[in-house]
Amino acid sequence: MPSNYRSFRHSVPWLMLLLEAVFIVGFYFVGSGDEVIRSSISYADFQDVNHMMIFGFGFFLTFLRRYGFSSTGFNLLIIALGVQCSILTEGLLPFQHQSEDKDVLKTITKAAVSMTAVVISTGAVLGKANPVQLILMTIVEIMFFHTSRWINNTFLMVQDGISMMHVLLFGAYFGLAVSSRFSEPSPRSEKKASTPKSDLLAMLGTLFLWVFWPSFNSVLVTADRNKAVYNTYFALAASAVIAFVLSVLTTKDGKLRMAHIHSAVLAGGVAVGYVAASIDYPWIAMILGLLAGVITILGSYCLERCWNPVLKIHDSAGIHFTFGLPSVLGALAHVVIFVIKSWNHGPRLGYFVMFHIGAFCVTISVALITGFITGLILNLKLFQTIPVSKYFDDLFYWEFPHLAVGF
Amino acid sequence: MPSNYRSFRHSVPWLMLLLEAVFIVGFYFVGSGDEVIRSSISYADFQDVNHMMIFGFGFFLTFLRRYGFSSTGFNLLIIALGVQCSILTEGLLPFQHQSEDKDVLKTITKAAVSMTAVVISTGAVLGKANPVQLILMTIVEIMFFHTSRWINNTFLMVQDGISMMHVLLFGAYFGLAVSSRFSEPSPRSEKKASTPKSDLLAMLGTLFLWVFWPSFNSVLVTADRNKAVYNTYFALAASAVIAFVLSVLTTKDGKLRMAHIHSAVLAGGVAVGYVAASIDYPWIAMILGLLAGVITILGSYCLERCWNPVLKIHDSAGIHFTFGLPSVLGALAHVVIFVIKSWNHGPRLGYFVMFHIGAFCVTISVALITGFITGLILNLKLFQTIPVSKYFDDLFYWEFPHLAVGF
Amino acid sequence: MPSNYRSFRHSVPWLMLLLEAVFIVGFYFVGSGDEVIRSSISYADFQDVNHMMIFGFGFFLTFLRRYGFSSTGFNLLIIALGVQCSILTEGLLPFQHQSEDKDVLKTITKAAVSMTAVVISTGAVLGKANPVQLILMTIVEIMFFHTSRWINNTFLMVQDGISMMHVLLFGAYFGLAVSSRFSEPSPRSEKKASTPKSDLLAMLGTLFLWVFWPSFNSVLVTADRNKAVYNTYFALAASAVIAFVLSVLTTKDGKLRMAHIHSAVLAGGVAVGYVAASIDYPWIAMILGLLAGVITILGSYCLERCWNPVLKIHDSAGIHFTFGLPSVLGALAHVVIFVIKSWNHGPRLGYFVMFHIGAFCVTISVALITGFITGLILNLKLFQTIPVSKYFDDLFYWEFPHLAVGF
């Protein structure tokens, strides 16, 4: 097996080189010209999203005791590849307006936001997929996500900002579908566990995400950005409170569980994504944040006991309840709030509701179907699935000269 | 005792739920309308303060060897609750102008700045107060702080920006007064100590605070913001240098002590807070930074040997010399610099000095008195004070599945 | 030896105090007046550079197993001293325009950018130089760097922005020259190695640098800042990909080496520094990033095996291949791209090429010569070189009360 793997490992870099060459050639044909127009997005906004992707998710996923190098390292690799791929895909799809094409900062910010889908999906297969599988998943997912957005924008007349917010929904369900095709890890594996140190680093990542979530929800909003910030902040605050409340209530002895805090403090930000700029009163955002926190913690309880064992899905980072369920709640809230706000608009209301529910269904169906197919393909013998005994192990990918010296 | 505590633990979440419900109802009545005016504060400024609170203080307080989860986790919980409480309290106090009420970003930034008081106070009882005590302290302190500000603004005609800067002074002395009512930890307790890893994480937090302190000092300044940034930076640089100087001079063998560095590098930023925008020459800021560093390190020496044992105060994170003493120096410097600058203004000068010294005395008296009363109330049997043997211990609040597997 | 060292240690603080006093007096004479003009640099831009210096480099250098306190602590000390020194030096050199002198935020940002040279140089002597040596090196290097810039600006008519970008080149070769005069550490020293935890913290620092590099390359650019950001981002992305590719190809068993990732992911940002704002098509930046990554990893292979043992240079943090070689590539690319872009401009082209190659040679010569002399002086008996057995050891500088308690 090792010698087998060694030859496989030596084929990985050629895949990456090939992709990078394709990207460079692609940019040669697609790439922006030398005229630069004033950007509608400030550099600071782009930086916030970039931070969130690189540190936030990088460290959010370091909770596994022996997978810190891979979590942060592969996260960087995937984002570096995925952002280039995303810009090319958007450039090739026919729905891009000419003028926007020149706004380089907006292009790159949208690419970074799209990458959230991939980063979330990798959470579901964290420690189970090898780099080749991760890279292929990145390329395939980013293409399907843009296709799903294109369907939403073109046929269902969903605004670009809203169709972008489907990114979390898409990422979570695509990841779950891919994950369902991977072998389950041994239930007694010690490597699945965290250490206090790795939990603290994951807390650092979670706090990064918590702080930057208002940026994420407001970066592509054109009007009322301050309102989006304000509402997201309150939703996050409410879900942070409810995370502590429910963690105490659902554990034995009334102690707090770090895994609950990691996932539920973010739920409010996820749920409020669709409606951050259209909620008029902060108490609505707070209630949404509360509900999102409740759904996340109860979801983690139900899914891990009832749902996942039955469907044989192993969701390493718990992305289903961290990002999936709050997104569903958010999409629902979006429709409900719109209905309440424009109750007397009659027929337009009906269309809106239909189109939005349609967009939701399209996104989730595309995610599940393409994710399932991707999962099937990635588990072909060709891609040398990792043996279950080597799951969650940095030693399998990284040199550890430290071992020779002693820790 | 444990079974006793278990039932107590199960009552904690209901307190939080109740508070969150009160906040939601409060926002229903107070909350901002749907008109949003242009904010005088940019989103990036708000983010800097938000960062500083969540990461900066979160990791600044992780130096205890077994209290990392609680330091970062409870910090998040307290800020999530406190910001909501602060916005409500400000909305209810009669001194709010109508127009400012609509500036949502300014409202939330001011709430975050006010929370510095609470976060600093928690440093004094770090590891000694249970979550119920921390939450009650948060609510009570934020209310008293706004009351003290209201007295300063209304009766002593102190500018809002200056009365906001009293936040560090208030936080430090309120925290000390509360702390004086808690039992002292056993002097031989190993858990009071830090590990090299926890010291390094606390250094991460300190560096965050160091970098963001110019934002903190300039965020509520309306004119000459660049000057406030510049002066704060030089004061911080000077106190970083003096921290290393005095740490070598005051320790045995001329080695550096990490605890000195953690506290003294920030002293300059604290001291220059009141006058950052009104100092005309950077060398004045540098001298102020130097003096602040000296006061902090000598203060840590004197307070820990002479003052605290006599008054039986145990100050976990050393907030008295880190934030308290440099604030006092800053308030003094404020008066001195004003007197020098407007020496020939006659009677107006006398009023100014009187009012500013009055505001200082009001703030510190309100902090000490209300802090002492809060400390007394929090140590009622009702709130189940933690036994001294369980001080500074994450195990008391958090599940540690890691223990089963081995670290 | 220890008693000898103790007396030496007690002389260190007086040096720092003296320097700080000189700076304060210097600012008294040089310091900016009370008129403040609108800054051409926003506060957020300054903050990004400040972050990058304090966290980015602070944690980038924490990879040594027992040198975390010193890496982050001395980095802060050096920056605090160096920024003040840099502002004074710039103020005293005759090439400063009067109007710019008042732009306090630009002054401080340029000082922070200049400090990159020193921070990179300390990487070469990391763990080998004592604080006195580090401080003297800081002062001397910042003066020589500004002198070299002054020569470039005045005699070779290089633009200020370009001569500033020589900072990485200067820092790397100055550091190497200084390092050549220090004794080599014992090849079997365990302390030279990293631990998985320290490597992960260094990864945190690397990610900070990766995220902030577009800010660094664009902060002093006046026109086309968005283009500088865009190109730097693509160069960084390409070098992140190539880092993973070559790390797999050059190690035994096709595993990844963390040290490769740390250095090569940044290579693209370094190389594209000179031309970030003048590249019109992102694919050029990507190719440059690819080449930089290749040069860094192949450089690390060749330098560590062939070059360094022959020249008896020990480069602790590998700054030669991380910052030195990509800078050389960048300077070369700058000339090549300019030649291609203005092929039909005839004589002006010849001057430009000559001047730019001249500036490159001046910078690198000044760096090597002054670095060598500085290295010689710093190794005088007066400065109490650390014995080789005490290299890379926090215990030599910091109190470790932790040891009494057990880790």
TrEMBL record, chains A, B, C:
Keywords: Membrane, Transmembrane, Transmembrane helix. It is a multi-pass membrane protein. InterPro entries: Ammonium/urea_transptr (IPR029020), NH4_transpt_AmtB-like_dom (IPR024041), RhesusRHD (IPR002229). GO terms for biological process: ammonium homeostasis. It is found in: Membrane. Its main location: membrane. GO terms for molecular function: ammonium channel activity. The chain crosses the membrane at residues 12-30, 50-67, 74-95, 107-127, 134-151, 163-179, 200-216, 228-249, 261-277, 283-303, 323-343, 349-380. It holds the Pfam family Ammonium_transp. One of its GO terms (cellular component) is plasma membrane. Gene3D superfamilies: Ammonium transporter AmtB like domains (1.10.3430.10). Residues 22-383 form the Ammonium transporter AmtB-like domain. PANTHER family: AMMONIUM TRANSPORTER (PTHR11730), BLOOD GROUP RH(CE) POLYPEPTIDE-RELATED (PTHR11730:SF43). Belongs to the ammonium transporter (TC 2.A.49) family. Rh subfamily. This is RH-like.
